[in-house]
Amino acid sequence: MYPRAVNASPWLSLVIPAWNEERLLPALLDTVDAARRAGPGGDAIEVIVADNASTDGTAALAAARGCHVVPVAKRVIGAVRNGGAAAARGDMLAFIDADSRIHPQSFAVIRNTLASPRVIGGATGVVFDRWSAGIAATWALGATLAWLSGLDAGVVFCRRADFVTVGGYSEDRLFAEDVEFLLDLKRLGRTRGQELARPRGAKAITSTRKFDRHGDWHGLHLTARTIAASFLAPLLRRRSRSEVVREAARRYWYEDRISPPSPPAAARPTPPRGG
Question: Are 125 and 250 members of one domain?
């Protein structure tokens, strides 16, 4: 565990948006510590947990692990990322979701990549923490889109000055705010002769908890259903396309969370005996 160095001047601020992530956050922080130990400058990396109105022990856990905890009340993922970035002191910013784990070489790769003036930012790439036919099909679709667009997922990184220039993440989008942010960076870079990078050798690992809950093929099914519903709704004159998409996004990303497992029977308090 790295204690928070208040007086140090970090070269990188890692922002972790979190809502009720007490169960998965420790695994991510373990990998952050390992990446800090893997190369020089690890003690000058600031870790910020942007706590999005969690009702579990997320904030206390993060503080105990030496993270700078920043409370963010607005339940929109872009606002959470921006809230963490607003408190950052590093000249470089990186973002990773709380249900992920980072590669030991993540910080070294980010530092080396941003050392080039030809690079405006980028993302490390990501893989799932387990595989099946359905998950592989979902990953293949995402990888194809990443290849076609030049965008990627995983640890997203850039210089803080460029983050400010593009206005950070959209606080209107309930999802795909990371795609819009990278597209904004890409457009800014084009005006300067810079490009987005997809460096190799430091892919993040992301949780398959949505697949565990909804089934391994649900990603493709959800995409098809959302597209179909968004086009049918205006035809039926019931709701606009944007209303349908926002409702589906809120249910899927903001309200759907597996409850933590109940404690074993032996650990539960014994009810008082009558009489």
Answer: no
